[in-house]
Amino acid sequence: MVRAIEEPESALHDSCVALKAAGARLLADAQSADAVRADVDGADLFVLVSALAWLGDQPGQKARADRLFDLVLTTLLTGSGAAAGGDGADGETEVADG
User: Fold this and answer.
1) Which DSSP category does 41 fall into?
2) What segment(s) does the record annotate as region Disordered (predicted)?
């Protein structure tokens, strides 16, 4: 996904640009609600999500990707955001709809 953003001729370019923009808007809304750290930008979020998606697709790395997702989420969420997310009964991180 990161490469597709940088390559306008890529078949995925437009979709990835739209995804990055949507993520940046959602991030800004979460930051306005003091749910996510203010020092994160849309590019940071896009690269983190892309890296976690790539890792999850690698043989034998799904559990590591899940653990790192939880680590990243815990790091990004502030006090009010952390109250909205958490460990569910199934061990998955849940994020409240807003």
Assistant:
1) -
2) 79-98
